[in-house]
């Protein structure tokens, strides 16, 4: 099963022009701020439309100029840099938001399965005790885990992580690195991780590309 | 003396409902979509707040009068005459108060980080669901401010209402026009009572809104 992307998109200062494919593991896109990394992620997820190119997720063509599957149907999990947890919903409602949008959720039996899976994920991520709390009342490390749980619980075909550790303090980062390394092995979802930190690249990359001014400098 | 109070409440409530629907619709379309001539639409929406109410009333009279394009259409097609009826009070109040609703809702929508809507989409939500589950609840304090201010403005509408609906006792006489009439005819007691009703009512609305807003702001 292969994930492939070829993306061309004109930005204000430069144009993004990248092409890469990988089958499993974690692809780390490393580069300084403003290198066009998030644009690549947004084009893969469908949040932005490339000027031209092709995006294949797990063998399914989702974009090629003629085809453009909307973001809600691409089955990608996206962890935003600021986590984007809905402040008006409890942790539990944040985590189950995605599964409630699934067609299977309308079926009573499937619904129970999905909710049980959400409980399992929350337990795995150690956030069950935060269920009834709101995102504004939990720590940065906890927010990160909730956001990751929310992105994973829908069982996406591809996980997109946009600087997932950048908002954490040094001490929390160390703990979260260990947790993420363990999740990475357990979950086995093909993942694209964006970072500017070489250490994160060292820790998690199965494949790695360096981006500068919108292009791949090194693989 | 009760009739103007009842009519004012009825007019303000209906005008606020229409202003809410229109305000939310235009605020969403003009902040989230690429609409041609956006600044022209926006100027038209805000114009009733800048123009003197008597001018707004005059323009509405031209539009809804028997020989006006809309007035003639309504009369010919449905046999309905708008001018000098309580419906005219609603139209005047709605048009004059709409800019307040629009401005508040627009500011509220703009204050919500767009990433929340994007996150909702990556989690399988369509635009409609993302709007109702994420954007609208997060913008709610601003929207409620808009509703309260619109209601208060609609309750206090005078100039445009007088032009379009007149001051017919028991039919189109609202609190502000009743106060004007009471003062003009030397009924000071009546004017005092209505002024007291309006002042207490407005105070309670703003006081209640502020208390609610303090409780309802979400921490991010």
Automatic annotation (TrEMBL), chain A:
Domain (ABC transporter) ranges: 2-219
Task: Note the superkingdom of the native organism.
Answer: Bacteria
Name the Pfam families for this protein: ABC_tran
Q: Which keywords has UniProt assigned to this entry?
A: ATP-binding, Nucleotide-binding, Transport
Question: Can you name one GO molecular function term for this protein?
Answer: ATP binding
Q: What is this protein called?
A: ATP-binding cassette domain-containing protein
Biological source species: Anaerovorax odorimutans
From TrEMBL, chain B:
Keywords, sorted A to Z: Cell membrane, Membrane, Molybdenum, Transmembrane, Transmembrane helix, Transport
Q: Entry's Gene3D superfamilies?
A: MetI-like
Natural source organism: Anaerovorax odorimutans
To which protein family does this belong? Belongs to the binding-protein-dependent transport system permease family. CysTW subfamily.
Q: What protein name is recorded for this chain?
A: Molybdenum transport system permease
Domain ABC transmembrane type-1 intervals: 5-213
This protein's membrane topology, according to the annotation, is: Multi-pass membrane protein
Transmembrane stretches, start-end:
12-31, 43-61, 81-102, 130-152, 194-213
Function of the molecule? Part of the binding-protein-dependent transport system for molybdenum; probably responsible for the translocation of the substrate across the membrane.
Record PANTHER family: MOLYBDENUM TRANSPORT SYSTEM PERMEASE PROTEIN MODB
Q: Indicate whether Transport appears among the record's keywords.
A: yes
The record, for InterPro entries, names: ABC_perm_TupB-like, MetI-like, MetI-like_sf, ModB_ABC
Q: What is its main location?
A: membrane
Tell where it localizes.
Answer: Cell membrane
Superkingdom, taxonomy of origin: Bacteria
């Amino acid at each position: 099963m292969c994930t492939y992307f070829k993306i061309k998109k004109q930005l204000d200062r430069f144009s993004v022009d990248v092409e890469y494919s990988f089958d499993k593991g974690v692809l780390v896109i490393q580069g300084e701020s403003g290198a066009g990394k998030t644009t690549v992620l947004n084009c893969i997820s469908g949040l932005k439309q490339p000027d031209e190119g092709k995006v294949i997720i797990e063998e399914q063509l989702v974009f090629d100029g003629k085809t453009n599957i909307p973001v809600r149907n691409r089955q990608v999990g996206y962890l935003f840099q600021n986590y984007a947890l809905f402040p008006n919903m409890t942790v539990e409602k944040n985590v189950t938001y995605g599964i409630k949008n699934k067609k299977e959720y309308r079926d009573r039996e499937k619904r129970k399965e999905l909710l049980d899976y959400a409980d399992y994920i929350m337990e795995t991520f150690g956030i069950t005790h935060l269920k009834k709390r709101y995102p504004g009342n939990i720590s940065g490390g906890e927010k990160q885990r909730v956001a990751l749980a929310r992105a994973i619980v829908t069982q996406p075909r591809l996980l997109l992580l946009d600087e997932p550790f950048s908002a954490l303090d040094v001490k929390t980062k160390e703990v979260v690195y260990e947790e993420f390394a363990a999740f990475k092995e357990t979950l086995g979802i093909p993942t694209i991780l964006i970072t500017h930190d070489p250490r994160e690249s060292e820790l998690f990359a199965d494949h790695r590309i360096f981006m500068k001014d919108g292009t791949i400098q090194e693989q | 003396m009760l009739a103007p109070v009842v009519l004012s409440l009825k007019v303000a409530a209906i005008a606020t409902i229409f202003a809410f629907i229109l305000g939310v619709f235009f605020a969403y379309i003009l902040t989230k979509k690429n609409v041609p001539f956006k600044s022209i639409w926006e100027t038209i929406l805000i114009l009733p707040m800048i123009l003197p109410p008597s001018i707004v009333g005059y323009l509405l009279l031209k539009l809804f009068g028997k020989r006006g394009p809309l007035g003639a259409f309504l009369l010919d097609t449905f046999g309905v005459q708008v001018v000098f009826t309580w419906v005219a009070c609603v139209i005047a109040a709605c048009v004059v108060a709409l800019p307040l609703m629009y401005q508040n809702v627009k500011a509220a929508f703009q204050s919500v980080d767009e990433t929340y809507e994007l996150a909702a989409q990556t989690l399988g939500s369509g635009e409609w669901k993302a709007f109702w589950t994420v954007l609208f609840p997060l913008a709610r304090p601003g929207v409620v401010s808009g509703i309260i201010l619109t209601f208060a403005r609609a309750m206090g509408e005078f100039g445009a209402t007088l032009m379009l609906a007149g001051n017919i006792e028991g039919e189109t006489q609202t609190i502000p026009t009743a106060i004007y009439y009471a003062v003009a005819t030397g009924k000071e007691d009546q004017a005092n009572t209505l002024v007291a009703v309006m002042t207490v009512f407005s105070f309670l609305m703003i006081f209640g809104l502020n208390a609610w807003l303090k409780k309802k702001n979400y921490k991010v």
